[in-house]
Amino acid sequence: MKRKAFAPLVSLVTAFLGEAHAIAAASPDPTGLWYDAQESGWGLTIAKQGDVAFAVLFVYDEARRPAWYAASGLHTAVNFGPNPGAADVFYVGKLYRTSGPWFGAAFDPAAVTISEAGTLELAPALDGTLKAIYVIDGSTYVKTVQRQTWDSNLALLTGAKPIVQSIVYAGRAVITSTTSGDCPQLDFGGPAGEPPSQFAASTSPFGPNRVLIGWGTGTDTVCLIEGPYTQTGQLGSISGHMRCGPIGFTPAAGDPQVDITEIAANTHGFAGAFSYQSGGCKYTGHFGGVRVTD
Amino acid sequence: MESQVSAFRRTAARFAAALVAAVSLASNATLRPDPSGLWYDANESGWGLTLDQQGNIVFAVLFVYDASGHPAWYVASSIVEPNDINPLPPPGGPFSGALYRTTGPYFGGAFDPHAVTATQVGTISIAYPDATGESLGVDYTIDGVHVVKTVQRQTWQDEYIDFSGVYQGAAVVDSQAAACPPPAISPPLGLVTAFNVAPSFSSHKVRIGWSTGVDTGCTIDGTYRQTGRLAAIDGSLACGSIDAPPPALMPVTLGGIDFNNGAFTASFRFQQASCTYTGHLGGVRIR
Question: How far apart are CA A71 and CA A202, in angstroms?
Fold first, then answer.
């Protein structure tokens, strides 16, 4: 079979799309650049739209020349397990080898040849790594790759500004589930415990690469989330603690654990997955906002 | 009424008074909108370019063919705004960096990273030709061969349906001429806005509505377009009172709609009489 790489392949989406969709939405987006830190020099780039991922594997052939293989229609599939350590979904599809006109001349797409080289399966793991299983010309290869990180989006989130110049966001936390129906409503410090409609974010005065997110709850009373920011590929995460009360405190280890993960930030705002752990109750949802000040 | 965040800022100012506020010299040179994703020329399907931006650095891998027709890839691991100390670079580029050819061990054997060689073969520059960010100019040189291309974000699946919901966020005007009146899009008492985004399942029509006061509001009616991992809406904006005659329609474009983790952000541009307003909007989905 021949078909063109870098062309939409929506028609290959299968009938289980609807079921897979809901589950896929709960898993981290694999979009980005992946590599093996112990084997720097080759990589895998993944772009996901809806339930279909597009991957390009860039490696070297037997003559040590650069070579690339494309999988343009990786379908989302549900991991029915048991498969401890694996995420809920994985991606699977065919892997193609192409040849084509030299980059330095006029490019005739009709001269591109495409042949099926094998298959590619991408299995995200709960530890943030990704297992890539690819078959090329009948041989199977298994690699564990991680997101490649070369810079931080912390400055996008905070403007690299201290607390007195904090960036104001319009947005909030939205709790979508709790571990138990017996858990009380999560108190965000307002008169009725509701989440704030605006909050501020800045670099933390408590150390480098830390974030302080806060909102006023009354006269000289605030809620603060404070913790270190970590960049992993295109996504960031804050693992900290939250506390509300009169000014002059610092959220510390004894305060409830708050994690904001999978943070995607741009110049207009940010959003991430949110979790809050207090005793036996864990609240999960999402958190983010739109920048209203520079 | 003092907002929660104003109270926080006032409190924070007291809280931080004893702290030394170190002013960061970090550049704000981020390519906007975020170019991350897969790019190709729809008239030259078969080769492509992948870009990933983190902070101020864009990483590119160019997937092409060599003179023998073999697949070849080149990598640029640090594409940046050339004058990185400029605090206010043009958001749309150009960003430039060195382009490398690498060789290395066969994928079918043990991979020794020390056996990888990297040779600079030229440079690559990328820039948006216009503010929409839907196409990208790519200018690269490999071994003295100069190539100029215009590429588009590659789209293979529509995320239109995912967009519906009620969002809490804001619409913020970033730029308008000094002589222009305040735009009619914001509520008079603040910036916080709840957007209702209602796609039509029979087409790619979308209505985004929000209240601006008692019996007043705005609506954007437009057509949704997926552009790679982002989206755009072209349509018309109307603001007014429900008791008044239908208000005048203003042409509006939402671009760079970025939806993830139950939130979206977008840039906007609309025309109100002779005035052009640009800004951004978005919010967090609350239901």
Answer: 41
Q: Do B22 and A103 touch (CB under 8 A)?
A: no
Q: Name the residue among B45, B106, B258 with its Cβ closest to that of A266.
A: B258
Cβ pair B9:A168 closer than 8 A: yes
B228 and A CB contact within 8 Å: yes
Residue of A nearest to B70 (CA): A99
Residue for token digits 């030394």? Answer: B20
Instruction: Based on the fold, state whether residues A81 and A172 are members of the same structural domain.
Output: no
Identify whether A132 is part of a domain: yes
Q: Do B54 and A234 touch (CB under 8 A)?
A: yes
Q: Tell me, rounded to whole angstroms, the distance of Cα A88 from its chain centroid.
A: 15
CA A173 to chain CA mean position, Å: 18
- Residues A136, A161 share a domain: no
A174: left (phi over 0), alpha (psi -120 to 50) or beta: beta
Q: Are residues A20 and A141 in the same domain?
A: yes
Of A147, A174, A191, the domain-final residue: A147
Amino acid at site A161: K
In angstroms, the CA A118 to CA B262 distance is: 36
Token digits of residue A88: 């809920």
Interface test with A, best of B260, B278, B286 (most A CBs within 10 A): B260
Residue A4 within any structural domain of the chain: no
Q: Which of A147, A180, A197 is the last residue of a domain?
A: A147
pLDDT per residue rounded down to tens, chain A (294 residues): 344 444 432 222 222 233 333 334 346 789 999 999 999 999 999 999 988 999 999 999 999 999 999 999 999 988 777 677 777 789 999 999 999 999 999 999 999 999 999 999 999 998 999 999 999 999 999 999 999 999 999 999 998 888 888 999 999 999 999 998 889 999 998 778 888 889 999 999 999 999 999 999 988 899 999 999 999 999 999 999 999 999 888 899 999 999 999 999 999 999 999 999 998 999 999 999 999 987
Q: Chain A contact for B36, CB < 8 A?
A: yes
Residue A204 lies in a domain: yes
**Contact between chains at B168 and A271 (C-beta distance less than 8 A):** no
Whether residues A216 and A127 share a domain: the answer is no
Using CA coordinates, name the residue in chain A closest to B168: A171
- How far is B282 from chain A, CA to nearest CA, in Å? 6
Whether A257 and A142 map to the same domain: the answer is: no
Q: How far is A103 from chain B (nearest CA, A)?
A: 6
Q: Do residues A285 and A176 touch, judged by C-beta distance below 8 A?
A: yes
Contacting B residues, span 120-179, partner chain A, CB-CB under 8 Å: 142, 145, 147, 154-159, 162, 168-170, 172
Same domain assignment for residues A277 and A176: yes
Global confidence as pTM:
0.87
Verify that A73 and A159 share a domain, yes or no.
no
Q: Are residues A172 and A126 in the same domain?
A: no
Percentages (nearest 5) of helix, strand, coil residues in chain A: 10, 55, 40
Domain residues for the domain of A77 are 10-147
Angle at B152 between CA A235 and CA B125, to 5 degrees: 75
